[in-house]
Design a protein that fits this description.
The protein has about 250 residues and is an alpha+beta fold. The chain folds into two domains: about 100 residues, no CATH class; about 130 residues, no CATH class. Helices cover about 45% and strands about 10% of the residues. The protein has ten helices and six strands. The strands form two sheets. Strands 1-5-6 form a three-stranded antiparallel β-sheet, with no helix packed on it. It has a three-stranded antiparallel β-sheet with strand order 2-3-4. α5 runs antiparallel to α6. The relative contact order is 0.10. The mean pLDDT is about 85.
């Protein structure tokens, strides 16, 4: 086979285009049939990886519909990492923009939740702070650091309820309402929890490296009766806070 890597890669991703004429087998004959088998195996592996990574989306769409969507996606979005556990980072946006799925606008955010759970599971380990550090007299000026596993997703759709309904037997049928989901990983498996709008605003502000004072203002704007102790308890229980910075790092 005397063909450039670029031509080989292009042919691998373009099943509707002819193979490069230089693509030959060991006997010097056109390698069309063998290459098509290889190309099909690659496509199938990527579709399987998507189905494994987004099982709720696969269930919501149905097997054949999901395979059709996944086939189109993998031709246009090749892996950026050899680790298939990371494949599918652009899948939520693909679902958002797919014209055939316009009637199901919640699918993209459900996929974002599944992706966030996967990212939280594979995130690096970290060590949580000593809660006594929260007694610092200048805490309002503090900036918080979070564990790599911490994820926050806000949606106008009941994404966690949809996820639970399709993964946990006996879960309540989702109601049409916005949901804000905090994901922590205090032990081995990620834990998704619905949190209040004000809690989400506070965490989002802290994730932008804003001070606690600024984050509390954002929380109160989103939820006038916001209770900081409520979300702080959840963050501590989830081992989510890894450092507090007030002029110098407190570890």
């Amino acid at each position: 086979m005397n063909v450039s890597q670029t031509d080989f890669y292009t042919a691998l991703r373009a099943p509707d285009k002819p193979l490069p004429s230089e693509l030959k087998d060991a006997k010097g004959q056109t390698a069309g049939r063998r290459f098509n088998v290889y190309r099909n195996n690659v496509a199938t592996s990527l579709m399987d990886a998507l189905e494994s990574g987004f099982p709720v989306i696969a269930r919501l769409l149905g097997e054949q519909n999901f395979r059709n969507i996944a086939r189109d996606f993998q031709w246009n979005a090749p892996p950026s990492s050899p680790l298939m556990m990371h494949y599918g980072n652009g899948f939520p946006e693909y679902l958002d923009e797919h014209p055939a799925l316009a009637r199901f606008p919640y699918l993209g955010d459900v996929a974002r939740l599944e992706l966030a759970l996967r990212q939280a599971y594979h995130a690096a380990d970290s060590t949580a702070i000593d809660p006594s550090l929260l007694q610092h007299p200048d805490l309002l000026n503090a900036r918080f650091g979070f564990a790599p596993s911490v994820q926050l997703i806000s949606s106008r759709w009941p994404i966690l309820s949809v996820w639970r309904f399709n993964t946990q037997g006996g879960s309540a049928k989702p109601q049409a309402q916005a949901e804000h989901v905090l994901i922590t990983r205090p032990e081995f498996d990620p834990i998704p929890e619905n949190i209040a709008k004000g809690d989400a605003a506070l965490i989002r502000s802290l994730m932008k490296d804003e001070s606690l004072s600024e984050a509390l203002t954002a929380a109160q704007e989103a939820e006038p009766e916001h209770d900081f102790s409520r979300i702080l308890s959840r963050l501590l229980a989830g081992l989510a806070i890894t450092h507090i910075r007030i002029k110098v790092d407190l570890t």
